[in-house]
Structures are given as C-alpha cells and as structure tokens.
Design goal:
Elements lengths: L2 H6 L6 H5 L2 H24 L5 H22 L4 H21 L7 H19 L4 H9 L10 H30 L3 H10 L2 H18 L13
Protein name: DUF3159 domain-containing protein
Keywords: Membrane, Transmembrane, Transmembrane helix
Pfam family, one: DUF3159
C-alpha cells in the first residue's frame, strides 16, 4: 500500500466510509423482495390473475415503509421520492404487460445504462468515481487537474463497470427465461455484497495506482 495515501487520509477511511451506500443498497432490494414473496404466495394460494397485482401491492407497501424509515432518518427527500417512483413505475410496467418478470425490467435496463455510462465517462476522461468522490470531498473538479488522480480514478472506475456487467450476466438470462423468483433472489444477492466488493476493490486499485509520494485523495496536486 502507498504510505503517502495512508498518511493523507484519516485512519480507517476508505471508499465505503466516504460514499456509504450500504443502507441504500439494502433498502433498494426490499420492494423487489416484497414483490417476489407476494407474487409467489398469490401464485400458490390465489387465482392466477391476481398474482402480479398482489406482488405489486406488496412491493408498493414495502416501498412506503422504507420511505417512512428514510424520512425519519433524514434521508434526502429527492432520494426517497425517486425510490418510490421507481417501484411505482416497475409495478405499472408489470401490470400493463401481464408478465411478472417485467417488474424487474427497470433493474435490468438501469444496470445496462450504468455500465455504459461509467465506461463512457472513462473514455472521455471524466471517470465517474472521480466526479462522485470529488463532490463528496468538496473538490469540485480540482482532482481532474492531477494526472495521478485522474489515472487512478479511471482505473478504479473500471471496477464499477465490472459490477454492472456481473449483474447483467446474471439478470439478462433470467429475465429472458422469465424466471421471476430466481431474478428476485439474484437481485437481493447482488446488492450490498457486490457493492461492498466493488468499493473494496476500487479502493485497492486507487491506492495501488497512486505513486507512493502522492498526498492522497484529499489533496489533489496540479
């Protein structure tokens, strides 16, 4: 590890500490889990025509509970509204198409868009990891004038591209095969555990890429 980076950052600080994300990643999976449970129970104990509606009702109920908890925890109102809106749109899509698996269409599409967006940001030399960390640290775009940081953020951003590609490699075949229950389980399994691995791996890449005498993420040099 680079001693310069380690001295420049408070003890124990890393990308997970800077960016957080554990609670958000877990909360985002709960409505989908509610949908799968409601849908599966309705498939077994209720008329077949009710299953999607019951699953959507369960997802929306869980989303409302999550929103209330987030509001009490003083989460940003915009994030709460967007979370509710995403679940509502997913429910509308499933109800309109009549295919249970279409509830997860937005999840599949958003991961494809994220993979493309992160990869494109690296190509145009505005790696999204640098943009996000720069905003969190109040640096705006000063990090981009540091060639070493620009290089490190670019390399580490590929880890995030890989995260979305891993999800797509699992989600797309299940979606095309209309494996609703399996897709719901995969959605949960590839939430926080994969995010945690991505944060740890990209942090390792950052520290390995920066030269030993670099002052660290908090101190971009011109």
């Amino acid at each position: 590890m680079n001693s310069g980076v380690r001295q420049a950052l408070p003890e124990g600080e890393n990308l997970a500490a800077l960016l957080g994300g554990r609670r958000g990643a877990i909360d985002a999976t709960l409505p989908g889990l509610g949908y799968v449970v409601g849908w599966a129970l309705a498939e077994r104990f209720a008329p077949a025509s009710w299953s999607i509606a019951v699953g959507c009702a369960a997802a929306l109920a869980v989303a409302v509970v999550v929103a209330i908890v987030r509001i009490r925890a003083q989460s940003p109102p915009r994030a709460v509204v967007l979370g509710l809106l995403g679940v509502a749109v997913a429910a509308v899509i499933a109800l309109r198409t009549g295919r249970a698996v279409d509830f997860f269409f937005i999840q599949v599409a958003s991961n494809a868009a994220s993979a493309l967006g992160w990869a494109s940001s690296i190509v145009i030399r505005w790696p999204l990891l640098g943009v996000i960390v720069g905003l969190v640290l109040g640096q705006r775009t000063r990090w981009r004038r540091d060639p070493a940081l620009l290089k490190a953020y670019s390399r580490a951003s590929w880890v995030w591209v890989g995260q979305y590609l891993v999800r797509l490699a699992v989600f797309v075949p299940l979606f095309l095969a209309e494996q609703t229950f399996a897709l719901g389980v995969a959605r949960v399994a590839l939430s926080w555990p994969l995010v945690a691995l991505c944060l740890a791996s990209s942090w390792w890449v950052l520290r390995r890429t920066l030269p030993p005498d670099h002052p660290g993420l908090r101190h971009p040099s011109s």
